[in-house]
Amino acid sequence: MKNFSLFLSFTFLFLCPFLSQADVPELSREPPRPIVFVPHDGSKSDPQQVHVSLAGKDHMRVTYITEDKKVESVVEYGKQPGKYDRKTTGESTSYKYFFYHSGKIHHVKIGPLEPNTTYYYMCGCNGPEFSFKTPPSSFPVEFAIVGDLGQTEWTAATLAQIKSQDYDVFLLPGDLSYADTNQPLWDSFGRLVEPLASKRPWMVTQGNHEIEFFPIIEHTTFKSYNSRWLMPYTESLSESNLYYSFDVAGVHTVMLGSYTDFDCDSDQYQWLQADLAKVDRKTTPWVIVLLHAPWYNTNEAHEGEGESMREAMESLLFNARVDVVFAGHVHAYERFKRVYNNKADQCGPIHITIGDGGNREGLATSFKKPPSPLSVFRESSFGHGRLKVIDGKRAHWSWHRNNDSNTLLADEVWLESLSSSSSCWSSSQSHDEL
Ligand SMILES: *[C@@H]1O[C@H](CO)[C@@H](O)[C@H](O)[C@H]1NC(C)=O
Ligand SMILES: *[C@@H]1O[C@H](CO)[C@@H](O)[C@H](O)[C@H]1NC(C)=O
Ligand SMILES: [Fe+2]
């Protein structure tokens, strides 16, 4: 038997010399591709790097950057192109990093807005018109999800795939620009994602590439990330931009920080406990969590890096009957069974690693052998995921592998929310008591 499989592998290696690590043998694995640098081709007062994010009930935050510091933090908007019947003034910030001085970073919170509605807007009374669509207030709702995005030609391919099929909200579980202290790359990243991020809310959490600590020169961590990617943390009663939550239709989404304190006396832990206790599964039947370093991972890359956070926080998520945990960090795709404490558990979350956006470091190609019985599907290819929540009970998860100019549905599964699983809500685990 052993000899036979050895024989098969040798035959396979011989026939397909480039596919030796493949779990799915019909596709060759993508090598890293070069960085795409997107220049600013407007004037100093033209808004650039425009992106929108959810900012509490019925509100959105519009973020844009101008090189000209005299441009005001103002967004004009309305439901018809060119007709702006509303105008809101926001705030601005900027930062220095070694010799680099950022542009003026404007954050303008607008609303109240109607759900599932297109708004046209202009930033800083200048430049082109943009438009976004607000998410629906009820099911169905669709999320596009991918981490470790970077800004290579593969990133551009992933973004093109995401754009080609509509979605309501984009979720990014950490590692955005891979600027890695080279600040102009943050600006380039902002310009690369603008065609998507100005049209649909982009909700992000941070990865190790956002830390940007530099010995002697820069001791403030997450400086660029926090200045540019302001998320609704005050709106969700968090003290830090590094962890927060929000509701979309009937989905409560929690963004956690893998690189800030998470032990039981930390602010993050206390906040998470309080946030989960407030969840009403009648209003938000689905609860999903995003974080960067996976708690479950059978890739040799980053093995065990999420372990101390898992030990600290897994029981909180389990007791709250979280449905799915999405992670990045490992540059591959992997889907697990419902798990808790390293064992299959029908009341635990499904864990999914989706760190395959297309960054410059390339793919994590070595999965441990033999495969863990907890791991259902794993593959090292670039791509992105989609979570389409149909109603309070059913959702469809799919993983779309990049395939040159098109995309290929490579993994899919129907999920049922734990809110509708009566066996997971014994009287001692009623969510009123969490
Ligand atoms: C959102 O609007 C579109 C058309 O504009 C409609 O087809 C769809 O049903 C709406 N979705 C919800 C959840 O209301
Ligand atoms: C993948 O892309 C190639 C080249 O565009 C195409 O020939 C092939 O049919 C695609 N595969 C699938 C399964 O779509
Ligand atoms: Fe990472």
TrEMBL record:
List residues of the Calcineurin-like phosphoesterase domain. 143-333
User: Record's InterPro entries?
Assistant: Calcineurin-like_PHP, Metallo-depent_PP-like, MPP_PAP, PAPs-like, PAPs_C, PAPs_N, Purple_acid_Pase-like_N
* Reactions catalysed according to its record: a phosphate monoester + H2O = an alcohol + phosphate
Question: Which UniProt keywords are present, listed alphabetically?
Answer: Glycoprotein, Hydrolase, Iron, Metal-binding, Signal, Zinc
Q: Could you tell me the EC number(s) of this protein?
A: 3.1.3.2
Q: Which Pfam families match?
A: Metallophos (PF00149), Metallophos_C (PF14008), Pur_ac_phosph_N (PF16656)
The top EC class is hydrolase
Molecular functions (GO terms):
acid phosphatase activity; metal ion binding
Q: Which Gene3D superfamilies match?
A: 3.60.21.10, Purple acid phosphatase-like, N-terminal
Look up the record and name the cofactor or cofactors this protein needs: Zn(2+); Fe cation
**Where does the signal sequence lie?**
1-22
**What residue stretches are annotated with the Purple acid phosphatase C-terminal domain?**
348-406
Question: Residue ranges of the Purple acid phosphatase N-terminal domain?
Answer: 47-134
Instruction: Report the family membership.
Output: Belongs to the metallophosphoesterase superfamily. Purple acid phosphatase family.
Name the UniProt record assigns to this protein: Purple acid phosphatase
Species: Brassica oleracea var. oleracea
